[in-house]
Design a protein that fits this description.
Chain lengths: 509, 143
């Protein structure tokens, strides 16, 4: 029992250290055998998932967990600080990355062949970066981990063939601008406070409020994170990067990168600059919500004009970023809770639809919408998961997408921001059109590859002969993700009252 | 006039940083050649490194090693006599990050060159148009 206690004390370090060390081990093992990379990576993902669940449990029972690296006390040393907000998102991120990893074996072998070891090493380093961003309590440390996640993200996207490297390089340029602006902002904060610890800066700043340097630091940090999270009009890098990357990569990067960046925005705004400064001293609230409204509308309209499934989903991601940014900057309890709840919901929904798209293109070898023909009969389970993911993105109860959208809309009404409410409703309507267009093609139009069954619905006994589902491990993880959408929907109320309300500052309403 | 010269001369390090940022951003946005864009990106990152290094420096201060202190370190140490080492140490990490970014960017540029046979953005654009006209036509955007 003593050893178990020793382990539970070090959970914050384990979450970051295990994927990092496993990435090194994978790189070393890869020289000897390609076969060992997958089980080792899955093992590391499982340990990280268990550690994040344990940490969540600790935070729920004892409150904030603070882990001092090397034993140095906070203002001087680097601390990992876990509260209700990041422990919840940690579990979601660990779950999403684990599910995607577990289902990646066949597709990764087909896609990368002898380079499969490099893929798994980059995958683990990417998750290391994301866990680090979520867990750290140090502003400069956040930058370093941001770059670890981004650099591995560039490499993962650039591995793909064809236009992937060009979209990857474009992402490098935009991502570097974003991260460097954030670094500049942290430098300004250091100049004026002499501290890098987030809580410490948050305590020092209120005494210095008239200073213009704080405003500059605030704008630089936010601007940098906006580029990283692809908020319209800084979203230019996202659609092509997610479309042309290999499908196992896009189902990892698309659900996680933007969501973790939105968490970073919430953390920087609430912990470093404090709620009072961001919402009362600076009048950015209204323009930022309008920017989010534009992001939602433009993302949805651009999604409508796409002919490729992955590109359509990528533009939906752009719109979803608008949901969360807008909800957060509404500045009331419902809106902020909705935004945080939507971070975890959207991570799972995006995972589900991107994994389904990956499974479809694994079998058809193409991701054009026209290649969906007859897919309900050919791959019924995959399309079932796609339907659940689509319903969740539209916001149909009891899937989890409904509940976060409900909070966001009620936050918009409470704040009297009807433009945001209208944008949410329009985007939901557009999502209905988008997904039902896919379902229509997949259900009513016959599969073009099978000459015998060209017209009319098929007989039930014909079905078994034509079903060619995705490989079993891909299918199991995909269905798990789809079922989790409903499970998460059922528990949304509890998550909001027991977890999210602990961190959202108590406001009127 | 005198006020402006004082502003420029007294804070020349910030002006240098701003100038480098603008040069870097200009190269990244306006240049068509991908390697020139990568160089611009590196100048942009270097500007921020210079910013951090310059904020640690103090006029007349020495290296932050206590052995060199005045009066054999017998009395309290005056922080004003020493350069602040922390921003410099932070920049070691930032330099590593910028080297790694440069490496990834150059590797991607090589991949692009092997695939398209050129590093000029407009020529690549033309090749994409020629190879897959329907994709560009339907997505209605460049790159």
């Amino acid at each position: 029992m003593a050893s178990l206690e020793g382990v539970t004390q070090h959970l914050p370090a384990i979450i970051v250290a295990v994927p990092l060390l496993a990435a090194l081990a994978v790189t070393a093992l890869w020289w000897f055998s390609n076969k060992l990379c997958y089980p080792l990576s899955v093992g590391a993902g499982l340990i990280a998932l268990a550690a994040s669940a344990g940490l969540f449990q600790q935070v729920l029972s004892y409150g904030v967990v603070e882990y001092r690296l090397g034993g140095w006390p906070p203002p001087w040393g680097i601390v990992f600080r876990v509260d209700h907000l990041n422990s919840l998102i940690l579990v979601a991120v660990a779950l999403v990355s684990f599910l995607n990893l577990a289902g990646s074996r066949v597709a990764a072998e087909k896609e990368f062949q002898e380079k499969v070891g490099a893929f798994y090493a980059l995958y683990l380093l990417f998750t290391t970066g994301l866990f680090g961003i979520l867990i750290t309590g140090d502003a400069f440390n956040l930058y370093v981990l941001l770059e670890i996640a981004s650099l591995t993200g560039y490499a993962l996207i650039g591995i793909g063939s064809g236009r992937a490297s060009l979209s990857g390089l474009n992402y490098v340029f935009m991502g570097t601008i974003g991260a460097t602006l954030y670094l500049f902002g942290v430098g300004c904060l250091y100049v004026i406070t002499g501290s890098l610890n987030m809580v410490d800066i948050g305590a020092i700043l209120p005494n210095l409020w008239p200073s213009k340097v704080i405003v500059l630091a605030f704008l630089l940090c936010l601007g940098g994170l906006f580029v990283k999270m692809a908020l319209f009009p800084l979203h230019g890098w996202l659609p092509n990067a997610y479309t042309y990357s290999p499908s196992v990569v896009s189902s990892l990067v698309a659900p996680l990168t933007t969501k973790v960046m939105i968490y970073a925005m919430v953390r920087v705004t609430l912990t470093i600059f404090t709620f009072d400064f961001a919402f009362n001293k600076i009048s950015l609230q209204v323009p930022l919500v309008w920017l989010a409204v534009l992001a939602i509308i433009v993302g949805s309209l651009m999604a409508l004009s796409q002919q490729r499934l992955k590109k359509m989903l990528a533009f939906i991601v752009v719109a979803e970023v608008g949901y969360m940014v807008g909800g957060f900057w509404l500045g009331n309890r419902a809106g902020m809770s909705g935004a945080v709840l939507h971070i975890i919901n959207d991570a799972l929904m995006t995972l589900c639809v991107f994994m389904a798209a990956g499974a479809l293109s694994f079998r058809t070898g193409d991701d054009r919408l026209t290649s969906l023909k007859g897919m309900f009969r050919k791959m019924p389970l995959t399309m079932g998961a796609m339907v659940l993911g689509g319903l969740s993105l539209i916001g149909v109860p009891p899937t989890c997408g409904f509940f976060s959208k409900w909070y966001l809309i009620s936050g918009g009404i409470e704040a009297g921001h009807y433009g945001f409410v209208a944008a949410l409703i329009i985007s939901s309507l557009v999502n209905i059109v988008l997904f039902f267009r896919c379902f229509e093609i997949a259900y009513f139009e016959p599969f073009s590859g099978s000459a015998g069954h060209q017209s009319g619905p098929m007989e039930p006994d014909d079905r078994s002969s034509t079903v060619v589902e995705a490989p079993a491990d891909m299918l199991i993880t995909l269905l798990t993700a789809a079922v989790l959408l409903i499970v998460l929907g059922i528990f949304s109320g509890q998550i909001v009252t027991r977890v999210i309300h602990q961190v959202i500052p108590a406001l009127t309403g | 006039m005198e006020a402006i010269t004082t502003l420029i001369i007294a804070k020349y390090n910030y002006w240098a940083v701003i100038l480098l940022i603008v040069i870097g951003l200009y190269a990244m946005i306006a240049k068509k050649n991908l390697v020139k864009k990568i160089i611009g990106m590196n100048i942009f990152q270097t500007a921020i490194i210079l910013f951090y290094v310059s904020i640690g420096a103090k006029r007349g201060a020495t290296l932050p090693i206590i052995v060199h202190a005045h009066g054999d370190a017998a009395h309290a140490i005056h922080a004003a006599d020493y350069i602040n080492p922390l921003p410099h140490v932070l920049m070691l990490t930032a330099i590593v990050v910028s080297v790694a970014t440069l490496g990834v960017a150059l590797a991607l540029a090589m991949k692009i060159y092997f695939h398209y046979g050129t590093l000029e953005e407009d020529e690549i654009q033309k090749k994409i148009m020629d190879r897959e006209p329907d994709k560009v036509a339907t997505s209605g955007e460049h790159l």
